[in-house]
Amino acid sequence: MTGILDLLNSDTGKTIISGVAGSTGQNTNKTSSVLTMALPVLMKAMQRNATTPQGAESLKSALDKHDGGILDNLGDLFNGGVNSNVLQDGGKILGHVLGNKQQGVEQIIGQKADMDTGAVANILKTAAPILMGVLGKQSRQNNINNSNDLSGLLGGLLGGNSTQKEQSFLEQILDADGDGSIVDDVAGMILGNTSSNQQKSGGLLGGLLGGVFGKK
Asked: CA-CA distance, 10 to 31, in Å (whole number)?
């Protein structure tokens, strides 16, 4: 199973990053950094939500409504800007997945990506339906029917068997209050320094998270 960071580094991923950047009026490299940090966080939040029967049922229902067709029409999606229906869908997805953690997550990602929180929110609203399309397509291909299957799907896309440090990184972002201090502590513990290869894989955050999840 291809991991979510592998997807972002693929030709399709580059189209998504470029399209989201153009639609939101943001720098492509910074958009790449935001998505590389945010998508694993969103998936970790989904995995956390799916640990309860109600949460798993809700997520499965949402995935059933996103069949992956959005991935087959990226050119139309980004041509002239993303339409309001997609953005409204994205806002609902973020609200459901992150709940009262949404603002804190957006603030911290903005701080680490050197981007205004409002811009981060626009990027996530645009990208969330695309992520659901990816997950919905994977769900159908793998005949996902229960909470254990859902957790396994999300874990596989996050890079398989996560180490304790990887889990800690994502959990701390989800539990942070938005002041950035917790993430700074975690970053100092596990992320290390930037290299030229890291810059090539989606900017600073792309390289850092790529290293955390074992992607080159």
From this structure: 15
Number of Cβ within 10 Å of residue 151's Cβ equals 18
Name the H helices within the chain.
4-9, 11-24, 28-49, 53-64, 74-78, 84-98, 102-113, 117-141, 147-157, 164-175, 181-190, 196-200, 203-212
The DSSP call for residue 162 is -
Residue 66 has pLDDT above 80, yes or no: yes
pLDDT the model gives residue 6 = 85
Burial of 92 (0-12, 13-18, 19+ CB in 10 A): middle
Separation of alpha carbons 77 and 59, rounded Å? 24
Show the CA angle centred on residue 110, arms to residues 104 and 115, nearest 5°: 150
pLDDT in tens, 15-26: 999 999 999 999
Q: Are 179 and 170 in contact (CB under 8 A)?
A: no
Give CA–CA dist 166/162, Å, rounded: 6
The structure's pTM equals 0.79
- Which residue would you say has higher pLDDT here, 93 or 52? 93
Distance of CA 45 to the CA centre of its chain: 10
Tokens describing residue 21: 């950047």
Q: Which residue reads 């695309």 in tokens?
A: 130
CA distance 44 to 24: 25
